[in-house]
């Protein structure tokens, strides 16, 4: 209380100064580069289509600054196409870098959450997998679709290698059939947490 009354400034060292979910500065810079590159691509395409307004021409000159390319040379259209392709490749590379970071960050956070609070992790995954409020699939169409895949006879090409494999495996004793009883299932899930119940698809 006394320190606050005399107006002394308290040190904030060691305190959290920002959220962990803040966007990194390098990612913001890359997004700005992507936006500028897309704008430049649009103006280069306009110039290639015959738009010779001063603003467009000035942008095209800036795009070729530091090179020996002149707007009056005969192969300028080819140079424009090459420049546009180069910018598109740069945008693809920048976008891939952002996607790699996003995937890595997501995996890291999920692994850390799995070690600290599995229940919260599974709930977050369930929220991401919730389907929209669209119409339910038609049962007759679904049955006809899968029946067309599994019930229709298909003539497969039987290669000679299959006969070789079958002859090599003829001496192998087949495994005894595994019969799973309700008591086996009950014993397997007896120690499982109740919040790990199957979802709408019936799978855990």
TrEMBL record:
Coiled coil: 77-104
Top-level taxonomic group: Eukaryota
Keywords, ordered alphabetically: Coiled coil
Protein name, as recorded: (apollo) hypothetical protein
Organism: Parnassius apollo
């Amino acid at each position: 209380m006394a320190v606050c009354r005399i107006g002394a400034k308290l040190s904030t060292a060691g305190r959290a100064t920002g959220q962990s979910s803040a966007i990194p500065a390098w990612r913001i810079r890359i997004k700005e580069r992507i936006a500028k590159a897309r704008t430049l691509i649009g103006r280069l395409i306009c110039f290639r289509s015959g738009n010779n307004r001063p603003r467009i021409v000035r942008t095209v000159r800036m795009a070729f600054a530091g090179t020996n390319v002149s707007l009056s040379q005969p192969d300028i259209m080819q140079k424009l196409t090459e420049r546009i392709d180069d910018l598109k490749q740069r945008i693809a590379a920048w976008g891939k870098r952002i996607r790699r970071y996003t995937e890595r960050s997501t995996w890291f956070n999920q692994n850390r959450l799995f070690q600290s609070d599995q229940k919260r992790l599974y709930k977050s995954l369930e929220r991401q997998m919730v389907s929209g409020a669209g119409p339910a699939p038609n049962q007759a169409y679904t049955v006809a679709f899968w029946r067309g895949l599994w019930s229709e006879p298909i003539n497969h090409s039987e290669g000679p290698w299959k006969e070789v494999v079958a002859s090599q495996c003829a001496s192998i004793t087949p495994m005894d059939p595994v019969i799973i009883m309700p008591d086996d299932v009950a014993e397997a899930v007896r120690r499982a947490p109740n919040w790990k119940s199957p979802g709408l698809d019936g799978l855990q």
